[in-house]
Write a structure and sequence with these properties.
25% helix, 154 residues, 2 domains, alpha+beta, 4-stranded antiparallel beta sheet, 3 helices, binds zinc ion
């Protein structure tokens, strides 16, 4: 049996090509373009709200889906194993083994790219754009690409 199992989760982007992110420190949602996040010039992504560098910007949606997929995979694997045992012992007078009922599937919720009230903001320091909470746009935010403070009023 192969020991490594890979799960693929497609994270959808919105109509403008932005991907939804969530800061693990303050829970703030914002959006960045994949080409910016993958750029060699950008070492870290800073949260526009708290200015910290989150270890991961995976949204709760994606984590929930990943957990459900893993749960289902484990249940399937255990059930298959039980079935195999059942077959193996089916002609054995001394051991009786029943696999039991197939476990119920965990719901795998879809991942949404939509938190529609985020607005595009161009950070002139890096000449890159992100989508942020309109309240941040009107007040103070941190550039997701360099961490610089922006006093927004564009
Ligand atoms: Zn934050
Ligand atoms: Zn910047």
């Amino acid at each position: 049996m192969n020991d490594i199992v890979t799960f693929k989760i497609a994270i959808p982007s919105d109509n403008d090509g932005y991907v939804l992110l969530q800061c693990e420190y303050c829970g703030e949602y914002f959006k960045c373009a994949p080409h910016d996040m993958e750029s060699d010039e950008i070492l870290h992504i800073y949260c526009p709200s708290c200015g910290l560098i989150s270890e991961s910007y995976i949204t709760e949606d994606v984590i929930r889906l990943a957990n459900a997929m893993i749960e289902n995979y484990i249940q399937d694997t255990l059930y298959d194993f039980s079935k195999k045992m059942e077959r193996q012992f089916s002609h054995n007078k001394f051991v009786k083994y029943k696999a039991g009922r197939k476990p119920k599937k965990e719901y795998e919720p879809p991942v949404y790219s939509t938190i529609e009230d985020l607005v595009e903001y161009n950070y002139r320091c890096c000449d890159r754009s992100a989508k942020i909470n309109p309240l941040l746009k009107m007040s103070v935010s941190f550039c997701p690409f360099c961490g610089g403070v922006e006093f927004g009023n564009q």
